[in-house]
């Protein structure tokens, strides 16, 4: 092995050791995660056409390089006691105050809520929730001339390394939920939808799709349930029938029609990993 290769290997090992030790440090750990976020956004910006989100990188970075310890009494701050809180606040500060609102496709949500209401009134049945939502989506995507206009869920594409026939997304709401959860990039590419259930403080809006896991909150123990929010006051959701939701309980997935998925993809992927690390 040449001396240059030995030096590169030595440097790599030193960097790996530094990252493994620094990730648990209250300040260095934040800087490492923020650097990874910047890198992820840069890559996604090239692949998905993201707008330039990081207009003030110097101000953003300075917000992380502060001591999380109260120097007056040398006690940990609230962010140290709750390590996931600083992640939520830090990541959301990457965007302008109304960035989440600008990502929502209002034309899409309005049309989908209208189509779902009309179809539910026409069907007024039970047992065909996915079929009803599928045809509502099909009508909207045709009008908007975007996404998959044929919309056979069994032929929806999957993210790299996965195959449509391992999901059979057309069988039931539960099958569709698994496909949507495991294939976020294809979910946006095919249907212009994104899971926003991990975005802190997200408010349910008309046109959002609620997907419930099997047996969740008393829904079918094999097929689950899927519905479109058609009204927020009172909260109403429709599929093959409409129902008023007296007490809202968070579903497994909250799918929102969006214009751009890059920032949400970065947030969802990283926040899930962080939550998994702290729960283990």
Description:
- The chain is of the alpha+beta class.
- It folds into 2 domains: 3-101, no CATH class; 105-258.
- Helices cover 49% and strands 11% of the residues.
- It contains 11 helices and 8 strands.
- It has helices at residues 3-22, 28-48, 57-62, 78-81, 83-92, 99-103, 106-123, 129-144, 173-182, 184-191, 262-279, and strands at residues 69-70, 75-76, 193-195, 209-212, 225-232, 235-238, 242-244, 253-257.
- Strands 3-8-4-5-6-7 form a 6-stranded antiparallel beta sheet.
- A hairpin with a 4-residue loop joins β1 (69-70) and β2 (75-76).
- α2 runs antiparallel to α11 (262-279), α5 runs antiparallel to α11 and α7 packs across α8 (129-144).
- Residues 49-97 and 270-280 have low confidence and may be disordered.
Short description:
The protein is of the alpha+beta class. Helices cover 49% and strands 11% of the residues.
SSE order and pairing:
Layout (H helix, E strand, L loop, with lengths): L2 H20 L5 H21 L8 H6 L6 E2 L4 E2 L1 H4 L1 H10 L6 H5 L2 H18 L5 H16 L28 H10 L1 H8 L1 E3 L13 E4 L12 E8 L2 E4 L3 E3 L8 E5 L4 H18 L1
Antiparallel strand pairs: 1-2, 3-8, 4-5, 4-8, 5-6, 6-7
Attribute tags:
6-stranded antiparallel beta sheet, disordered C terminus, two-stranded antiparallel ribbon, alpha+beta, 11% strand, 280 residues, 49% helix, 2 domains
């Amino acid at each position: 092995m040449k001396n240059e290769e030995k030096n590169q290997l030595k440097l790599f090992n030193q960097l790996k050791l530094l990252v493994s030790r620094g990730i648990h440090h209250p300040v260095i750990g934040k800087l490492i995660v923020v650097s990874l976020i910047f890198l992820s956004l840069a890559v996604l910006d090239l692949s998905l056409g993201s707008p330039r989100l990081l207009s003030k990188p110097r101000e953003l970075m300075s917000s992380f390089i502060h001591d999380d310890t109260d120097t007056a009494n040398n006690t940990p701050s609230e962010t140290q006691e709750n390590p996931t809180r600083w992640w939520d606040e830090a990541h959301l500060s990457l965007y302008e105050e109304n960035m989440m609102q600008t990502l929502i496709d209002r034309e899409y949500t309005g049309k989908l809520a209208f189509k779902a209401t009309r179809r539910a009134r026409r069907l007024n049945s039970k047992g065909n929730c996915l079929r009803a939502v599928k045809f509502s989506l099909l009508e909207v995507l045709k009008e908007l001339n975007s996404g998959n206009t044929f919309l056979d869920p069994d032929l929806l594409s999957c993210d790299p390394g996965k195959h449509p026939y391992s999901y059979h997304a057309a069988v039931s709401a539960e099958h569709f939920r698994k496909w949507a959860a495991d294939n976020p990039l294809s979910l946006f590419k095919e249907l212009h939808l994104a899971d926003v259930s991990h975005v802190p403080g997200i408010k349910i809006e008309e046109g959002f799709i609620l997907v419930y896991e099997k047996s969740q909150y008393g829904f079918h123990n094999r097929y689950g349930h899927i519905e479109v929010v058609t009204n927020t006051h009172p909260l109403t959701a429709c599929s093959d029938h409409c129902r008023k939701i007296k007490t809202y309980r968070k579903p497994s997935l909250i799918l929102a029609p969006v214009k751009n998925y890059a920032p949400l993809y970065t947030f969802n992927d990283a926040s899930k990993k962080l939550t998994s690390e702290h729960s283990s």
